[in-house]
Amino acid sequence: MIMRSTAPILLGVLAVVAAVDSAGGQSTPAGKAPYDRVCSVCHGADAHGDAGPALVPLEPDLDEVMVIVREGRGQMPPVSPERLTDDEIKQIVAYLKSLDTGAK
Prior knowledge:
Layout: H1 2-23, H2 32-43, H3 62-71, H4 86-99
């Protein structure tokens, strides 16, 4: 009997927590983790450049980014699919675009 009366309360609490989390924008963008793992070492934590060039604002489109990542360019070595999947590259591109606030 106790379980039956507490179940609606528990569901209500979970719904409120989920709503607060999504309303507060607390979720981490999907591309941040792979960016931090592979790209931030050279391009900086904020993607504004460090040892490598700034990636924000991101100028190349997804297809060009895929070629650059897989084949390398300049001092950037190629990155294998085992280290960074195609889906992770897509997520990183979306993440980098989200960092471009348009402020100059």
